[in-house]
Amino acid sequence: MNIIGIYLAAGNSRRMGKNKLALPTANGTVGSLALQTALTSSLEKVYVITKHNEPDWLPREMALHEKCNLITCPSAQEGQSESLRCGILQAQKEKANAAIVLLADQPFITNKMIDDMITLMKEEPLIQFVAASYQHITRPPVLFSSFMFPTILEIKGDIGAKNLLRGEFFRHGKMLDFDDEKLFFDVDTVEDYDKLHHFLNGPFN
After folding, report:
1. Where in the numbering of this chain does the MobA-like NTP transferase domain appear (predicted)?
2. Tens digit of pLDDT for each residue in 158-192?
3. Per-residue CA distances from 108 to 74, 89, 112 (Å)
4. Could you tell me which residue, 12 or 145, shows the higher pLDDT?
5. Among 14, 24, 100, 173, which is most buried by a count of CB atoms within 10 Å?
6. Is residue 97 over pLDDT 90?
7. SS3 category, 31
8. Which CATH superfamily is domain 3-201 in?
């Protein structure tokens, strides 16, 4: 199966007040952490959806990685659904069998997490999505089969694909539960950024 990553990195960082993805950490910029993970997973390619051709948070060595592909999304200002649309259109061009939607502000996802989701879809190729979850509540990332690409393209505004995991669509997919809440930590505020430093520099790291 040709399974790609869609790395959403075109947000406005409204709650942070500045570009959160460019903020430094001990292990690189905030935006580079999850991308490094995605590039070392079993994904065939990773499409990084940005507002600009050369995002200031992206290290040159990652930009030159054989799996990494930058996609500039001019309509990203209109909401997350537009960034998602840019990624899904690229997935269709690539004739991808599935695409996992990754958020650039989730620094603690792991390549095992991504690969476990991919393995489940390969084992059950008729399911339409695999959603990561914590305590049985779905959270990003989500792996979508190409069967769902046309439906995703219909989403409008500043909402993500998570809303598709409700109602009639829910019975067509699977949840994969993870027991570590930190995997789903996201950086939205200054307080979150402080927590990120604590996690990265704490006694267990």
Report:
1. 5-166
2. 666 666 776 666 778 999 999 999 999 999 999 99
3. 28, 27, 11
4. 145
5. 100
6. yes
7. helix
8. Spore Coat Polysaccharide Biosynthesis Protein SpsA; Chain A (3.90.550.10)
